[in-house]
Amino acid sequence: MSIFRFFTRTPSAPAARERLQVLLAHERTNGDESDLVTALRDEIMAVIAKHMQIDREKVSVKMERGAQVSTLAVDIEIPFDGKKRAA
Amino acid sequence: MSIFRFFTRTPSAPAARERLQVLLAHERTNGDESDLVTALRDEIMAVIAKHMQIDREKVSVKMERGAQVSTLAVDIEIPFDGKKRAA
């Protein structure tokens, strides 16, 4: 499954940056489609944006929908000058 | 690493429930401690609570802090009658 590739991939060359990764996995016992993961994606991104400036070009979003499991993987590269102080 | 155990563990016996898993991984290039993951935990839980009723007894939260990476794993069991309609 690609979620394992996502978290086990070899790090890129060292660089002066931080990364924040978010993974959601929604497992359903019935086969109904669900927009829960889709809905959470934008709201969680908004939560993150309250803590730091997010460069849209530095954000990778991968979503996979299966019959039983939907997964969302968000990978955010954080510039050092993009940090805000949390209130 | 335990985050892999978390996502690869054998499912429990089939039951009439759904699960939502959230994983955060914050990778720092300097060694400074960060409360980013801690801050995001409560705010993301609040986002999820807008979409469903969360039974605190059905929520597992595991946090690990390392020198370079902090991880947070949240595992939520969703009762079928706990769903709300997203606005």
Write a structural description.
The structure is a homodimer of 87-residue chains. Chain A is of the alpha+beta class and 87 residues long. Chain A has one domain (17-81): Cell division topological specificity factor MinE (Cell Cycle, Chain A). Chain A has 2 helices and 3 strands, in the order H-E-H-E-E. Chain A has a 3-stranded antiparallel β-sheet, covered by helices on one side. In chain A, strand 2 and strand 3 (69-78) form a beta hairpin. Chain A is elongated. Chains A, B: Belongs to the MinE family. Chains A, B: InterPro entries: MinE, MinE_sf. Chains A, B: This is Cell division topological specificity factor.
Nutshell version of this structure?
Chains A, B: It comes from Aquamicrobium aerolatum DSM 21857. The first copy, chain A, has helices at 2-8, 36-51; strands at 18-27, 59-65, 69-78. Chain A is an alpha+beta fold and 87 residues long.
Describe how the helices and strands are arranged.
The structure is a homodimer of 87-residue chains.
Chain A: H1 2-8, E1 18-27, H2 36-51, E2 59-65, E3 69-78
Antiparallel strand pairs in A: 1-3, 2-3
Protein name (chains A, B): Cell division topological specificity factor
Family (chains A, B): Belongs to the MinE family.
InterPro entries (chains A, B): MinE (IPR005527), MinE_sf (IPR036707)
